[in-house]
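Hey L., structure's done. Input below.
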Amino acid sequence: MPSTKGLFKGFSNSLRSKGSASSKENDMPLPTEETTLVPVKDETDGETAFRRKAYDTISERALEMSRILQKTRGSSFFDDAINMRSGTVPHSILVALVCGVVCGVAAFCYYICLWNLLEFFWKYLPEKYVEANWSESHYVLWIPLVGFTMAILAGATVVFMGEPGDLAYTIKMVHTNAYIPMNHVMPMVVASQFGILGGGSLGPEAPLVAICAALAGYVSRAWFKEQERNIIRKHTLMGMAGALAAFFGCPLGGSLFALEVNSRFGVEYFEHAVEAIFCGEVTLSVFRLCAGLPIGPIWTISSPAQGPSSPSLILVGGGIGMLGAATAAIFAQFHFKVMGTFKKFGLLEDKKAIFRAIVGACVIVPIGMFIPQTMFWGEYEFQAISTMSPAADLDHVWPTSGLLNFEMTSAFKCFLVGLFKLIAISFTVAGGYRGGFIFPFFACGAAFGRALTHIFPWIPAPYATLCYAAGINVAITRTSLATTLILCYLAQEQNCISAVLLASLVSLFATGYMPFIKSQVIRSDIEEALYFRTDKYSERSADSTLNESEDGAHH
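Output:
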């Protein structure tokens, strides 16, 4: 039997002569090295060894040698900074700074407007006029008065200003056009504010994502004159990351959420992660500086916070994550039925947006009157729900007592809060309200988690609430890493991270074949997105290499 060395020598010589002919044919210089070490499995003993593999053609070798990363195209940082090449590190830093400032100011304007309107409709007006002129037994009528008025205005916005879009639309545009059209910005601003003011179970996070994504894409195309789709997409993702970093007050978690939510498993636009997170830092700083808000946790589930975790608690977290996934799966089926009913009666058409919103309010408002804990998006309600505090501690709704003075005093009542919060989320979406469901799902998880602590008192409340919230949210949004960081950061429970992460991963795997956001699709532009071709005959050599590779595969 001939030796491996002898076989390799003959094979190498034949490839060298073949490569020379191919090189002459394509007018390409002969590379000094035609082979590379690759791991191969020996068919005789099953062991893996490194052997030399020759390229089928010299053009294939030259094609690989001619590729460099888009981000480091120049010879140095200063070279790229002087030439300001699109997509390079200096260029991305500049765009991130500009987008961060623009998006930070935009987020501040949205926030200050929403907060003042919330104070006006749910604090100032009822305390100044309702309490002075209505009997106490009629106070609860303020909820339907404001709720139905805002529902009508939210629907009218769609009819007269145009379709605002939603999170699924934003994700779709990131994949296809790489930017969100600017004509969706004002309809989204107005429609989302009316929906939130009406007490719907959707929050400002998705509107801010759409608004900042559109602004960042506009900055990319109009100010920096970008035309390459993946570079525009990078800047759009910067805007999305900035919006959520500013909103959550958690730059890493918020930015990761904006990156993860576009896909079903992990960050597929991974090459943009670092720049997007950097823009998130800038946007967070600008927004919080303008708003005068601190950067830190907003919930205290237990005082003091939980101490060091244990393997048993981590496993419990995984089990709770599975419960959250099951809850999300049931919710998804219920919501699809609700949407199907709305579609059956033609309520999803934009011209019927007002009637559609009224139908949605017919479910949202009565639930809020009986169970005030289900009103609004849940960012501040989470504190009251997770600690089972009195309804008087609820931040926005007035009156906080509702019709029945409902309080979370038992496992069944906690379960009711979670159940009817899910129903309210579904009808808020079906009713055409615009907003995000991240915090609403967190609030649901907190309620179901507290129900668990009544049944199993040995489970600490932070583990039960955060793991259940993670299980539900990850199943719907597919954001296992970001959800873990956001929940544990906002609740100042860093020792719960291991359990919450396991809950998130279990939920992600368990619902891997149950996509809720249909526009979360697989990307297909990895090769062209990462590399920049430097050879002068890139098109011909790339085409010839592709053809030769296909021929080789067929043979």
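The beta strands are 35-41, 48-54, 67-69, 531-533. The chain has three domains: 4-67, 89-291, 311-510.

-- N.
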